[in-house]
Write a structure and sequence with these properties.
single chain, alpha/beta, Rossmann fold, 9 strands
Length: 414
């Protein structure tokens, strides 16, 4: 008979072994799914950019283990995100797999500063009535109920809101202001399925929490922009929570913007150019957020768009951005997105000049965007501070905040 762990260290080792076994099995499944997707689309996408239907995953044999990984699924980042979220929840900071050369150099002693607050989800959930919750309960499938009930407080609320939108519970939609509209397969979106219904509650929480941490609260009369909004998965949730603000979204993908404009009333959408200048006047916005946008700009484009953000923001306005940093090296190695050799080259470039870029989508495009300045970028906090100040004040920095991967910054316009 197996003995029970007698110490916290023993328990952690048991969890590590369990995670390693689960990750090996999931890596094999992910590889098969990746081959099928590549054949269907005739091109390769990163694991974190897959458009997975999570309903099938919820019913799989791995549902019991993966149910604690709801944050990754809710953020719409596929199997890689689920493994990362599972590790982060049970153990903490992600650790690279394997031993020997190529493993240890990508580890991080500094633990990721993960999100725990849920200001937007809390606000929306509190609008639900007992009747709304009862109506949802009557429609839940067993796997959906299991996922919801396994979640902690913040995730429980996010999943409840998503499932209420997925099942189109009329009272819940009316009271929260959420919409059940879901982009079709022809429209670019970062997530599909039941847990993506109504938008991304995790990222809406991420935005509101980070802005609030800098003393910037969302209030009536403010004007906000989702820069790189795609089909509106984040701004739709924020607009539902705070309809008293004026909300805008822009993206160079015309199909995604057209869908959002026709399905998400109360938000002003614009098809933006791939290079500055945006179709907005000087000092239009009180705040701008850009989720995984600077993680794709070349160095010249990153600097040009920083200047453009400063133009459209009002004095003391906030710019929130997330990007690949040094934590992303450990994460990317963990999920096997890049070879140890390429990661070593990225690490060396970050150490030497603070920035690394490759035109990843050259020849295939990314959701219709084929631009030599749009690829994959990594940069350090040192690089950003050296180039942003003194025009910007760094109001907040959370390393590895986004699922132990992307860094999060909030800059204040001077």
């Amino acid at each position: 008979m197996a003995t029970q762990p007698r110490t916290q260290r023993d328990e952690v080792e048991v969890l590590r072994a369990r995670l390693d076994a689960l990750e090996r099995e999931q890596v094999e499944r992910t590889a098969r799914a990746h081959q099928a997707l590549a054949a269907a689309q005739d091109k390769s996408y990163w694991l974190d950019r897959w458009h997975l239907d999570l309903n099938g995953l919820m019913r799989s044999r791995l549902a019991r283990e993966l149910r604690v990984a709801i944050r990754g699924a809710q953020a719409g980042i596929g199997a890689a995100g689920q493994r990362r979220a599972l590790r982060a929840r049970l153990i903490g900071a992600p650790k690279p797999e394997g031993t020997g050369a190529g493993a240890a150099p990508f580890s991080r002693a500094l633990s990721p500063d993960l999100l725990h607050a849920a200001p937007i989800s809390d606000l929306l959930y509190e609008r639900l009535t007992a009747e709304d919750l009862a109506a949802l309960e009557a429609q839940l499938e067993p796997a959906e109920r299991e996922l919801r009930d396994a979640a902690d407080s913040a995730e429980h609320r996010r999943v409840t809101l998503a499932l209420a939108a997925h099942h189109e519970v009329a009272g819940a939609l009316e009271h929260t202001g959420l919409s059940a509209a879901m982009p079709g397969p022809e429209v670019a979106t970062m997530a599909r399925g039941a847990l993506a219904a109504g938008g991304s509650y995790y990222y809406a929480d991420l935005v509101a929490d980070a802005l609030g941490a800098t003393g910037f609260e969302l209030e009536r009369g403010q004007v906000g922009l989702d820069f790189g909004c795609s089909s509106g998965r984040i701004v739709r949730v924020l607009a539902a929570a705070h309809p008293e603000l004026e909300w805008h979204g822009c993206d160079p993908n015309p199909g995604a913007v057209a869908w959002a404009a026709s399905h998400l009333p109360g938000i002003r959408f614009e098809n933006s150019p791939e290079a500055p200048r945006l179709p907005y006047g000087d000092e239009t916005f009180d705040f701008v957020y850009a989720i995984s946008i600077w993680s794709h700009f070349s160095e010249p484009a990153a600097l040009d768009w920083l200047d453009e953000m400063r133009r459209v923001l009002r004095p003391r306005g906030r710019l929130l951005l997330t990007t690949h940093g040094e934590h992303s090296l450990a994460h990317t190695h963990l999920v096997g997105q890049r070879s140890p050799e390429q990661l070593a080259a990225i690490r060396d470039a970050l150490g030497e000049r603070g920035f690394w870029y490759t035109p990843e989508y050259e020849g295939i495009g990314d959701h219709g965007i084929a631009n030599p300045d749009w690829g994959i970028a990594f940069f350090t906090a040192e690089w950003l501070l050296a180039r942003a100040t003194p025009k910007w004040r760094v109001a907040l920095f959370h390393p590895g905040r986004v699922e132990a991967n992307h860094d999060l910054y909030v800059l204040e316009r001077r």
